[in-house]
Amino acid sequence: MKSFGELEVLRGVTLEVESGSIFALLGSNGAGKTTLVKILSTLLKPSAGTASVNGFDVGTQAPAVRASISLTGQFAAVDDVLTGRENLQLIAKLRHLDQPDRIAEDLLVRFSLADAGRRRVATYSGGMRRRLDIAMSLIGDPPVIFLDEPTSGLDPRARKEVWGSVREIARRGATVLLTTQYLEEAEALADRIGILHDGTILVEGTLAELKALMPPVQVEYVEKQPRLEDIFLTLVDEGGSVASPSDATAPSRPEPHPQVQR
Asked: Which of 37, 60, 191, 240 has a CA positioned 20 to 30 A from the CA of residue 254?
């Protein structure tokens, strides 16, 4: 539980994240997602209740919790004056790790930033900045990673790039708590999903378990039109080399696709 004066921000939040999995905490703005992350990362103290991270109590063992985690906030915490490589080297030195140059090179390759490693971060796109930010959070191999709305404000292509980075983190064995307000993001990435609303976890489970909560559906076949995101990604990835409407000599009949109605 967490209150600010008479305002209750979190109440009745109970969840457990399995080691090595991605847990998505889904909720709208103001639901309490960031407040929960701040409590778990020892930046805020709960008003009541207990919580532990990697086996350490966030109230009584805060230093041990901090040594076990890395936090990527809603805004990329990178230095625009430094290059991508220098940002990574700086964090490695602050963590007192050996071979900061090698660590930086390895992460630049892992996050597809090797070609941009010598450029100042001020020249990076939003997706590149966010990938660098996540790479910086992995220095020292913390077992628990908090990602607080990591794709907020990014375009569709940059979001997909960040999704690949998150999957890479989990593939290497880290436990990831991801907060998001994007339903498709939770669906694409999470092993388990919790829905947070008004400071309370309404439901928690796998995607299949959450789908099972809905009533049976009736399937009808209709034409499926491309989404605007599909059009955007196709044009960007293929350099605009797609047929324009005027190129078509005769309309073709598309294959029917299922549409779900409740």
From this structure: 240
What are the backbone angles phi and psi of residue 147, rounded to the nearest 5°?
A: -120, 105
* Among the listed residues 181, 176, 179, 180, the one whose alpha carbon sits nearest the alpha carbon of residue 165: 176
3-state secondary structure of 171: helix
Token pair 């990697």 is found at 54
211's enclosing H/E stretch is helix 207-211
CA dihedral 99, 102, 107, 112 (to 10 degrees): 160
Asked if 60 and 51 touch (Cβ cutoff 8 Å), the reply is no
- Start and end residues for every CATH 3.40.50.300 domain found in the chain: 2-211
Q: In this structure, how many other beta carbons lie within 10 angstroms of the beta carbon of residue 157?
A: 15
CB atoms within 10 A of CB 23: 21
Task: Report the alpha-carbon distance of residue 86 to residue 142 in Å, rounded.
Answer: 20
Q: Where are the alpha helices (DSSP H) in 17-95?
A: 33-40, 62-68, 84-94
Contacts of 243 (CB under 8 A, 6+ apart): none
Provide the 10 A C-beta neighbour count for residue 251.
7
pLDDT tens, residue by residue, 198-228: 889 999 999 999 988 888 777 777 777 788 8
pLDDT at 11: 87
Determine contact, residues 194/201, Cβ cutoff 8 Å.
yes
Within 10 Å of residue 164's Cβ, how many Cβ atoms? 11
Mind giving me the DSSP string for 126-157?
A: HHHHHHHHHHHHTTT--SEEEEESTTTT--HH
Q: How confident is the model at residue 33 (pLDDT cuts 50, 70, 90)?
A: very high
